[in-house]
């Protein structure tokens, strides 16, 4: 079964200046684990995305997926805690259903979570025991984003699609964002996504 077993820690940073050098200390601010995980996230289901824009078809990234509400995800076992761990999975047993008003697009039941809390700095530590390997139709991901301020931006921390063999860490933003030293599978020196805040850079290519 394609699934995540996850714990998340959020560590906040504070700077202290001493002479000509800067030291930085860290303290643990937030822990998400099996005792509180599903209370700290919003389950973004197909109905939520349809309420934003019917053109999404239940998924803003146009995947063959049917995102479940919290109650449906918990009752189906696609979101649960087991042996002190958080489990987030996809339905790998039943045939993918026809979804949307047209009933012409197949969507496999899955889970998409969005944290209720937000941060503007810190270190995020994710302890993932298992996640999907390279396989057709999988898209495991862990993203951070900001669509409420100018410039908008997104950091893709974990992302891989289909038979991709390596993780791809990506930066997306509006406005100037250039690098002189780059590396990775998809090297681009400019992470400006094009467009404006109002359309969240959706007309860009990066």
Provide a quick synopsis of the model.
This is GH16 domain-containing protein. By secondary structure, the protein is mainly beta. The protein contains two helices and 13 strands.
Question: Keywords, please?
Answer:
39% strand, Beta-glucanase-like, hydrolase activity, hydrolyzing O-glycosyl compounds, signal, ConA-like_dom_sf, Glycosyl_Hydrlase_16, 206 residues, 5-stranded antiparallel sheet, 7% helix, mainly beta, 13 strands, disordered C terminus, 3-stranded mixed sheet, globular, single chain
Can you offer a commentary on this structure?
This protein has 206 residues and is mainly beta. The protein has helices spanning 46-52, 70-76, and strands at 3-18, 21-32, 41-43, 65-67, 79-82, 85-89, 97-99, 105-110, 113-115, 123-130, 141-146, 153-159, 170-173. Strands 1, 2, 5, 6 and 10 form a 5-stranded antiparallel beta sheet that branches. Strands 4-8-7 form a 3-stranded mixed beta sheet, with no helix packed on it. A hairpin with a 2-residue loop joins strand 1 and strand 2 (21-32). The longest helix is centred in the first third of the chain and has 7 residues, at 46-52. It starts with a strand and ends in a 33-residue tail after the last strand. One of its GO terms (biological process) is glucan catabolic process. Keywords: Signal.
């Amino acid at each position: 079964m394609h699934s995540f077993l996850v714990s998340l820690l959020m560590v906040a940073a504070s700077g202290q200046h001493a002479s000509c050098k800067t030291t930085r200390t860290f303290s643990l601010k937030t822990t998400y684990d099996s005792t509180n995980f599903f209370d700290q996230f919003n389950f973004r289901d197909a109905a939520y995305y349809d309420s934003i824009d019917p053109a999404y078809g239940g998924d803003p990234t146009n995947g063959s997926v049917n995102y479940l509400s919290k109650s449906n995800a918990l009752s189906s076992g696609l979101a649960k805690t087991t042996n002190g761990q958080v489990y987030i999975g996809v339905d790998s047993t039943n045939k993918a259903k026809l979804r949307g008003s047209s009933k012409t697009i197949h969507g496999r039941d899955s889970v998409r979570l969005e944290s209720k809390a937000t941060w503007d700095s810190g270190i995020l530590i994710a302890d993932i025991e298992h996640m999907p390997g390279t396989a057709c139709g999988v898209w495991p991901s862990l993203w951070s984003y900001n669509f409420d301020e100018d410039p908008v931006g997104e950091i893709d921390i974990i992302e891989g699609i289909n038979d991709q063999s390596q993780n791809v860490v990506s930066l997306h933003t509006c406005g100037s964002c250039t690098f002189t030293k780059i590396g990775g599978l998809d090297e681009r020196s400019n992470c400006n996504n094009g467009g404006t805040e109002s359309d969240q850079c959706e007309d860009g290519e990066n």
